[in-house]
Amino acid sequence: MGKSNVQHVKDIDIIRKKHLKLIFGAVILIALIYTAGEVTDYNHIDGVLSVPAAIQWLFGNMLFSSSTLANLPNVLRVLWETVLLSVVSTTTAALFALFFAIMGSKQTSVSGVLMWIAKLAASISRNIPVVAWALILVISFGTNAATGFLALFFSTFGFLVRAFIETIDEASSDSIEALKATGATYPQMISKAVIPESMPQMFSWVLFMIETNIRSATLVGLLTGTGIGYLFDLYYKQLDYEMVSLITLAIVIAVLIIESISNLIRREIL
């Protein structure tokens, strides 16, 4: 009975400590929100109170009419080009990322120097935002589809190299050791053990990046003057809010459809 009371007291102490941590975390969060508002001169109460007026403005200015719907084929054509650009840039980056991941993984690396180079290249590429890539590349390549492709390529490459390295490292080493014991060559080890075991998860990462890049491609298009982003920017600057609303809705629907297809494929391969 005494042990039961002691355990009960310990449980109460644990619960109290958790509550104190939650309260402490909430106080820090509130303090950060308040400090951010003071630094940026943003009033959170005014922001909340302005929501009804903002919603009223949206419904008053962004509901498109039948005349605006006549431009839907052109919007869908440009959106399709943006989707294709995202798919091509992602799949191309995945091929290069696979090569660098094999060099950078502990399981498959043949040289410490090559491992370091692969991880460094991925880190630099990954830590430069896609917007920064677009701004850097537009200076050299101008406003064209190639600039958008390269911006998406470099940002995707860095992310996929890291994801692929982790996938290869997490793969079971039993098959690799078994092939080494039989005298298999390095290419045989890669093709018979590493890639077959890692490919489903790698393919899932590629699908995830395709979804992400379709969203990013819209922002990249604003900077490079291509794709659906350029069309959005064009009508936005003309204050044609009906077309802006139509383009936004088309983007959202396209992303939801591709995400649904991607989730269906992932359930089948994983």
Q: How are the SSEs ordered, and which strands pair?
A:
Blueprint: H1 2-40, H2 44-49, H3 51-61, H4 66-69, H5 72-104, H6 112-127, H7 130-141, H8 145-170, H9 174-181, H10 186-224, H11 227-237, H12 241-269
Helix pairs in contact: 5-6, 5-8, 5-10, 5-12, 6-8, 7-8, 7-10, 8-10, 9-10, 10-11, 10-12, 11-12
What is the CATH homology-level superfamily of the largest domain? MetI-like
Rg value: 25 Å
The appropriate CATH architecture of the largest domain is Orthogonal Bundle
**Can you identify the CATH class of the largest domain?**
Mainly Alpha
Find the CATH topology of the largest domain: MetI-like fold
Indicate the percent of residues in helices: over 70%
Order of helices and strands: HHHHHHHHHHHH
Largest sheet: none
N- to C-terminal distance: 50 Å
The stretches of 5 or more residues where confidence is low (pLDDT under 50) are none
Shape: globular
General description of the model:
The mean pLDDT is 82. The two termini are 50 Å apart. This protein has two domains: 2-61, no CATH class; 71-269, MetI-like (MetI-like fold), CATH 1.10.3720.10. The chain is mainly α and 270 residues long. Helices cover 87% and strands 0% of the residues. The chain has twelve helices and no strands. It has helices at 2-40, 44-49, 51-61, 66-69, 72-104, 112-127, 130-141, 145-170, 174-181, 186-224, 227-237, 241-269.
Brief synopsis:
The protein has twelve helices and no strands.
Characteristic terms for this protein:
270 residues; mainly alpha; MetI-like fold; 2 domains; 12 helices; globular
